[in-house]
Amino acid sequence: MDTEKFEENLNETARNVKEIVDMKLELFTLVAIERISKAFTNFLAMLISTIFILFFLIFLSFVFVAWYELHFGARYEGYLITAAFFVILAVVVFAFRNVLFLNPMLRGFTEAAFEKEESLNNLKNDKDAAE
């Protein structure tokens, strides 16, 4: 009689453990999907913004060349000035690439990761307090 009850309790415990492991796995999968979705959305927004900025700079360059040609009469000088501007811009962006790109991305990913960790811990603490 005792062995049957022991086996029943053992089987129930095994089922509960399996259920908890499945729930934890599902939770971590959902958290990972949310983090990846957020990262992809941020990346896509940055990519689209960068494309718009590039188009703006290209059209601004053509406007500058047209203005320079109108006032000074030499189109090739306008293009040379524009090319020099883009070379200087490229050097500045390359020099400050960590400050401009890497650090904000790392900060954003870190904040997102710790935000989720805190919310998961709050859920766990709320559940523990309810029991």
Provide an overview of this structure.
This protein has one domain. The longest helix has 71 residues. The model has no long low-confidence stretch (mean pLDDT 84). α1 runs antiparallel to α2. Helices cover 96% and strands 0% of the residues. It is mostly helical and 131 residues long. It is rod-shaped.
Summarize the structure.
This protein is mainly alpha-helical.
> Could you state the order of secondary-structure elements as H and E?
HHH
- Put simply, the count of helices is 3
Radius of gyration: 29 Å
**Poorly predicted tracts of residues:** none
Quote the beta fraction: under 5%
Please count the beta strands (DSSP E, at least 2 residues each): 0
Outline type: rod-shaped
The structural class is mainly alpha
Helix content: over 70%
- First-to-last CA distance: 32 Å
Whole-number tally of structural domains? 1
Average pLDDT confidence is 84
Major sheet = none
